Structures are given as C-alpha cells and as structure tokens.
Amino acid sequence: MAKSVGKLVPKVPKVPTVSGVAAATRRASYSASTKRSLLDAATALFTEHGYAGTSLDQIVAAAAVTKGALYHHYSGKQALFEAVFERIETEAAQRIAKALKKRRDPWDKALGGVRAFLEVVREPSYRRVVIQDGPAVLGYERFREQEGRSTFAHVVEIIDAVLDAGDWSLDEQMRLTFGRIFFGAMSSAGETVSSAEDPELEARRVEAAVGFMFSGFQLLIGTSETLPDALRIEAVPADPDDGTDGASDDT
Description:
Largest sheet: none
Number of helices: 11
Helix content: over 70%
Mean pLDDT: 82
CATH superfamily of the largest domain: Tetracycline Repressor, domain 2
C-alpha cells in the first residue's frame, strides 16, 4: 500500500544549489569574455592586415583562446568577420544617431548627421572592414543588407529633417526614394573619402557639396515653392478588363 501511495506523489524537481548557480554564472561570464576577446582581436587584425591577410591562428593567439573556443562561437573566419562588420556598423550607427539627437534645427541636424557620417568613414576599422573588405567578403547583396539595417535608417532621418522643413506633403514611398538616393550618394562619398590621399580634405569637400545641395532646399522653402506634381506619383491600378495575360493579338 505504501508503495502505491508513493507512486501517486509527484516528484519535486531538484532546485539548483547556490554553488550550481554560481558555476553557471561563471561559465556564462567566461563565454561572454571569450567572445569579446575574439571580436576585439579580430577587429584589430582585420583592420591592420585585412581579411585575406589574417589567419585564424593569428586571431586565437591574439585573443589567448583555443581554436575550439573560436569554433564554439563562430563557424569560421567569414562568420567572425561578419560579426566584426556588424559590430563596427552598429557603433557607427550609434554615433550618427547621437549627432542627430542633439540637434533640433532641421538644417543643423542634417549637416550634423552628414558630418558624423564623414567622421565614421575616416575611422581605420570602418575604412578597412566595412568599405574595403566588406563587399568582397560578404558579397554585394549581403553587404548592402547589413549596411541598410544599421545606417540607412539614420540617412532617412536626415532626409526627413530636410523635407519636414518645408510645407510639403510627400508620401512614405517618395520619402524612401529620397532616402535611397541620398544613401547611395553618401555611401559613394564615404568610399571616396576613405580611399583619398587626404581623407580630411576630401571630407570637407563632401560636406561643402552636401551643404550646397541642402541650400537649394532652403531656397525652395524660403520662396514658399509648392511641391511639384512630378513628385506626386501614385501607382496605376491594373485594368480589370484586360484579360489578355500577355497573349498575342495575332490570329
């Protein structure tokens, strides 16, 4: 009878001991520290030697970890490079966001964002990892996808600041079109600045050119220019009576 009663009593799960919790915390802390060491070492080596000139042996030696520890966190050199790329892009986006946040005047905000972007592209790690090696290592599509997730939103914010300065009612798609055009222009300008013999001088040229373009918007706003009809583009609905499905009219 005692045995049958015992079977009906649910088993109480074991509660982790204090020492067990402490051990798990230490393991998590060690894992995070190892990952951070790998990222720091890889960032420094990729910046100095480039992707092709850096080996996994160099990275684990600089990070003072084993290859097994590296493969525990990353599948290989390209995966580690992508993590470094994402980290640099995230930090760059944060710097641009900080520059935008401090300003209220739309023109000051726009130029402040451009200035922050031009400072970022002159950083050695950004120049080597993002601009020089990024497209080749990640592939163009993956490179644009990563870049678009981090800095594109802030480029759109810069353009919104300019467009909102005027009494213009642009739809969301047209705003994104302006953003994509400006993002492409700034990406190209970033490549020019990073590869220039005198990056500081080239950055001043780009900033002056962008400021001149923004002054055109200011002039339009000052004259109370209305929005051109050409910018009010709407999708053309499909003709429900057109049931040809591309078939030839030839008989």
